[in-house]
Amino acid sequence: MEVKIGVQNAQRELVLDTDSTPDDIESKLTEALAAGGVLRLADVKGRAVVVPADKIAYVELGNPTASTVGFR
Length: 72
Known about the structure:
Blueprint: E1 2-7, E2 14-17, H1 22-35, E3 38-42, E4 48-52, E5 56-62
Antiparallel strand pairs: 1-2, 1-5, 3-4
């Protein structure tokens, strides 16, 4: 699953590919926002992304779209 995280005062969003479910990510986000802590997610390669909850502008969950090559 592809996760895009918009961070306040940052020009680019964070994009990662993870094996987590949408429900799992939503519960982690809810906990981080309620506690005023950090959102910690791991990607498919085992790297971690840690974002302060109070700096999160938005989180977009979805499947990556495959790039098409050529004309139809």
